[in-house]
Design goal:
single chain, about 280 residues, mainly alpha, 2 domains, elongated
């Protein structure tokens, strides 16, 4: 079993401090060093400017979806672009009919068509490329992606006015970084915990409360509540014995050893060995 006083006074504050230090130093550094954040003075403005944008990760996944456009579907779209079957150049029609029936995907169809022209020592005409680019997506995937992007824009929330001043953004960014460093070394940990507690209350009030409680359901305030609890525990526990606060406290308790200083004991006479 762990020694209870040792766990309470040393291990518990140390573990809590290190966990808070890692979290807040990371977020502080990101807010300060991210390009466009102006050393923390514009991190909120920069972050809100990106809200409502279609996430790059989701966009990449859409682009990776297999293109199921068939040869016949693409031809039907190409005919519409030309304005009718009779308007399609005969040479293009002949070469398109020679394409493999199993070819799918716009890029693959164009590549196969380029091969057909290459057999005759020709390049795919520029006007044909332009018409092919105008063919609508018969599978509807592009439309789905565009509509999803519109939803992201429509649901985007503007930046709260309280976060607009540069001073507020600087205070949050540097408050997280310096508070995290204070937690790391155990210096003024109670005051640091109080400041970080206030920052988390502000985060809930301005951002996460509107998203609901569950963090995994859209970034709710569940994570902020956890940090509030950790900061409150740090405030009541203090820095613990393995901290700069404790070292400074013990140093102040040590009596001065300088001879002649106020309150110092008078020096003992030297022992000469003569009985008095």
């Amino acid at each position: 079993m762990l020694n209870e006083p040792h766990s309470k006074n040393t291990l518990a504050p140390l573990v809590l401090r290190l966990a808070l230090a890692i979290i807040f130093i990371y977020h502080g550094v990101v807010k300060i060093t991210t390009p466009g954040n102006e050393a923390g003075a514009a991190w909120a403005a920069n972050q809100w400017s990106r809200t409502g944008l279609f996430p790059d990760d989701l966009r990449r996944k859409f682009d990776q979806l297999p293109d199921a456009t068939t040869k016949n579907d693409f031809w039907a779209g190409l005919v519409k672009v030309y304005g009718g079957e009779k308007e399609v150049p005969a040479d293009l029609r002949t070469k398109y009919e020679a394409l493999p029936d199993k070819v799918t995907g716009r890029k693959n169809i164009q590549a196969e068509l380029e091969k057909q022209y290459d057999k005759d020592g020709k390049e795919l005409p520029a006007d044909v490329k332009d018409r092919m680019d105008q063919v609508p997506d018969p599978t509807g995937m592009k439309k789905v992606r565009d509509e999803l992007a519109k939803l992201y824009v429509s649901e985007a929330r503007g930046m709260p006015e309280v976060m607009s001043p540069y001073a507020v953004q600087l205070a949050v960014a540097w408050g997280e970084l310096l508070g995290g460093i204070a937690m790391l070394v155990g210096f003024l940990s109670r005051w640091a915990a109080l400041g970080l507690f206030i920052i988390q209350l502000g985060a809930i009030w301005t951002v996460t409360f509107a998203k609901g409680f569950a963090f995994n359901a859209g970034g709710g305030y569940e994570f902020n509540v956890s940090l509030l609890g950790m900061c409150a525990a740090m405030f009541f526990l203090g820095s613990g014995t393995l901290s700069l606060d404790h070292w400074l406290k013990e140093r102040r308790k040590q009596p001065s050893s300088v001879v002649g200083s106020p309150g110092s004991p008078a020096p003992m006479p030297a022992d000469t060995g003569v009985l008095r």
